[in-house]
Specification:
Strand order of the largest sheet: 1-12-7-6-5
Helix content: under 10%
Number of domains: 1
Distance between the termini: 31 Å
Low-confidence stretches: none
Shape: globular
Order of helices and strands: EEEEHEEEEHEEEE
Number of strands: 12
Oligomer: single chain
Number of helices: 2
Structural class: mainly beta
Mean pLDDT: 90
Largest sheet: 5 strands, mixed
């Protein structure tokens, strides 16, 4: 896999010399899966907390191209919605270990055969195997 971003500290993203705190500053809105195009796009929007800088991006999307593997472990039915919207960890992880969705590697850039795993406080896990992952930003107010 190739990516236009790096992972920092299991929950933050470095993109175009900008630090993006996906755990504290953004809420996960959901994903779109386009089977015909073999693409999965995950969407986050800036949270409304007073700790978030006014120049924070309004929203981001990470699109995964040439998807060859896509797995979603559902969220827990008993957790608050906010936990299902809050990223817990994100990691690049070897695709030959797809039975390991709850382990994480301190690896900022992906190896060619890695998947990407998104884990949320509500128990949901999204694992994607693809050739390219591209982050796009949306600037402006929330």
């Amino acid at each position: 896999m190739k990516a236009n971003f790096e992972i920092e500290l299991f929950r933050d993203i470095r993109f175009e010399n900008r630090h993006i705190d996906l755990h504290n500053n953004f809420l996960f809105e959901g994903f779109n899966y386009d089977l015909a195009k073999a693409q999965v796009t995950l969407h986050w929007v800036k949270d409304t907390g007073d700790w978030i800088s006014s120049d924070e991006l309004a929203a981001i999307a990470i699109t995964h191209f040439d998807v060859t593997f896509f797995k979603v472990q559902p969220m827990s039915e008993t957790v608050p919605l906010i936990d299902s919207q809050t990223l817990s960890e994100v990691t690049f992880y070897p695709s030959d270990e797809r039975n390991e969705d709850e382990r994480f590697l301190d690896q900022s850039v992906p190896d060619v055969d890695d998947d990407i795993i998104y884990s949320f406080l509500g128990g949901q896990i999204i694992r994607i195997g693809c050739s390219v992952a591209t982050l796009q930003s949306i600037t402006g107010g929330a």
